[in-house]
Each structure stands twice: as structure tokens, then as C-alpha cells.
Specification:
The chain is mainly beta. It is built from four helices and 25 strands. The model is unreliable at 1-32 (pLDDT under 50).
Length: 321
């Protein structure tokens, strides 16, 4: 997970400016999260009676040369050239590219849910690629107000690919009129990227953001939400990083209170329950039921803590590093 250096106040300031001292970077080297990026598959389509798709290609060395795709109702099916929604059904025998989640059945052929489908692919066309952003590299910020707009964004995807998107690239949203800019490219964002013959990014489709924000923490228990340091430190218990519920949740815009018999209760501003948890228990109560915790909730010196991974998941924060 993301490692934020918080050893010295000078280091804090440097990180916020996007310039970290070499000494601090060496002291708190970040660990790479175990991201599971989308998996690309391709092949000729055969439509099945249940609405799923059977894809098969001629590359016997491709582990997914024969696969069944299930189509959730909101799966985008796009024209590979324009990025516009396809205005027809997929035809048997046509070649498509698709990206699926990493979870697949052990059946033969394997089965998976499609996240995105591209069709209308011309011969010898460089198919755009679908990514999720894991990290946006920090940039030096000029100390003027208002902050000048970004001229480029250096991205690292969940698959480890490095991408640079400049102000010359065309950015546009998927099926909305919302304006998107380089600042819209943040950890957790899912994007479809077109490149030219030299590999330069020319066009980026930005899908609706699925998270409340993003957050990370150091091995020492220091956390940051949307790049802003959390003032209350976490704790390390038996090698597990525990983060303060109130400090992290409030930094993400939630409301937190202590309720007798329920413990720490986190709500949306509307009052809707996000979760509640009692110290000593290894489950948290959500609107959808109970969720198991890696380690029990801890209460110490007036602060309630949860395992970092569980807390970010419950708060719908994308884990970065």
C-alpha cells in the first residue's frame, strides 16, 4: 500500500509540494500493492442463448484463447475507433476485444464478467487500451495562486504500465457531459487510452469515478487521504497497521460519532449508515450486513482503530501507495 513519509514537518511540506527529500524516500520506501488489473481477452464472438458471449481466437498460447464472457447490465460496449456506444448488437463471427475482472471460474472454458467491450475494429488498427490508475506521480507545484492548470500527468496503472498524458491529448467522459481534465486522472480512475504510432497518448476516455477518494498509509501507521496527511497517527499491532477511524473517515467527508452499544458509527452527511464497529469485535456492521475484519477493532486512549485495509474498503477509498 501507499507509503507516505511523515518523519519530519519539512518532509510533509515537501511531499505536499510533490518534491520528497531523497533521505526520506529511502527511509520509507513504498511497498507495491497487490493490485489485480483488468485482463484483456479477444476473439471471434458466438452469442449464447443466455445472453453471454463465447470468445475464441487462434492463438493457442493465449491462456484465454477460449473464454465465456458474462455481461452485467452496465457493461460498456464501445466502437473501438470513436469510443461511442455501439448502436447495434454484436454479430456472431466478428472480432472483439474485452477486459474482464481477475476473478474467473475454474471451468473449461473459463468464465468471467466483462468490464468493457470494444467492437467495430478496422484491420491493422491499434486497439485502445483499458487501464485503472494506481498512482499519479507527484509534480512540483509553483507557489502561486491560483495554482496553474496541469500540463501533463504521469500515471502508473494497476498493471505497472507508465503513461504520460499531456494537455494536447483529448480527454472526454463516458456517457456524461461532465468536463474532465488532467486533474480528473486520479488513483482509482478507469480510463480507455488511444495512442499514436509512436506510443504517445492522443485520446483518453474517463469513466465515472467509483470511489469516495483514495488513501494510503506507511508501515509506521501514518496515513493520507487524497494526498492530505491525516493528523492522528495509526498504530502497529502484531505487524498489522491500524488506522484511526474518526480521523480518516472525517478526512474523506464522512460523519463519525460514538454511540453506546454500537461503538464508532460512520455515516454519510445524509445520515445513511456506512458502518459501525465495537472495540474487540472482528466484524463491522454495514447496511448490507456484517463484514469480517483482518484484526479486531481496537480502542485505546480515546481513539478507535481498524485495520488499514478494512477501513479503506468500508469507506470506499481506493488504496494507493
Amino acid at each position: 500500500m501507499k507509503k507516505f513519509s511523515r518523519l519530519l514537518s519539512l518532509t510533509l511540506c515537501a511531499l505536499l509540494l510533490g518534491v520528497a527529500p531523497a533521505m526520506a524516500a529511502e527511509a520509507l520506501e513504498p511497498e507495491m500493492p497487490a493490485y489485480l488489473p483488468p485482463v484483456q481477452v479477444w476473439g471471434r464472438v458466438t452469442r449464447l442463448e443466455n445472453g453471454s458471449l463465447h470468445l475464441e481466437n487462434s492463438n493457442e498460447n493465449d491462456p484465454y484463447h477460449d473464454i465465456i464472457l458474462h455481461l452485467p447490465e452496465n457493461t460498456p460496449c464501445l466502437d473501438a475507433v470513436t469510443g461511442l456506444p455501439l448502436d447495434r448488437e454484436l454479430r456472431d463471427g466478428e472480432t472483439i476485444y474485452a477486459w474482464v475482472g481477475p476473478a474467473m471460474t475454474m471451468s473449461l472454458p473459463p468464465q468471467a464478467a466483462a468490464e468493457l467491450i470494444l467492437a467495430n475494429i478496422p484491420a491493422d488498427f491499434g486497439v485502445p487500451q483499458y487501464y485503472q490508475i494506481a498512482r499519479v506521480e507527484p509534480r512540483a507545484v509553483i507557489a502561486i495562486y491560483p495554482t496553474p492548470p496541469m500540463t501533463h500527468a504521469d500515471l502508473v496503472t494497476t498493471g505497472g504500465e507508465a503513461l504520460t498524458v499531456t494537455k494536447d491529448a483529448v480527454l472526454f467522459p463516458y456517457r456524461t457531459r461532465q468536463m474532465v481534465t488532467l486533474e480528473s486522472l486520479r488513483p482509482g480512475s478507469r480510463i480507455l487510452v488511444w495512442t499514436d504510432d509512436e506510443g504517445a497518448v492522443t485520446k483518453v476516455m474517463v469513466f465515472a469515478y467509483e470511489y469516495r477518494g483514495y488513501a494510503g498509509w506507511t508501515a509506521e501507521g501514518r496515513a493520507a487521504v487524497n494526498d492530505a496527511p491525516v493528523a492522528v497517527p495509526g498504530k502497529v499491532v502484531d505487524g498489522e497497521v491500524l488506522l484511526p477511524i474518526r480521523a480518516v473517515a472525517e478526512a474523506a467527508g464522512y460523519q463519525v460519532e460514538w454511540v453506546a452499544g454500537q461503538g464508532a458509527v460512520v455515516r454519510e452527511s445524509s445520515g445513511e449508515l456506512v458502518f459501525s464497529v465495537l472495540p474487540g469485535l472482528d466484524t463491522a456492521r454495514t447496511a448490507g450486513g456484517e463484514e469480517w475484519l483482518i484484526a479486531p477493532c481496537l480502542f485505546e486512549a480515546g481513539v478507535t482503530y481498524l485495520p488499514a485495509e478494512n477501513l479503506l474498503s468500508l469507506l470506499n477509498l481506493f488504496p494507493t501507495y
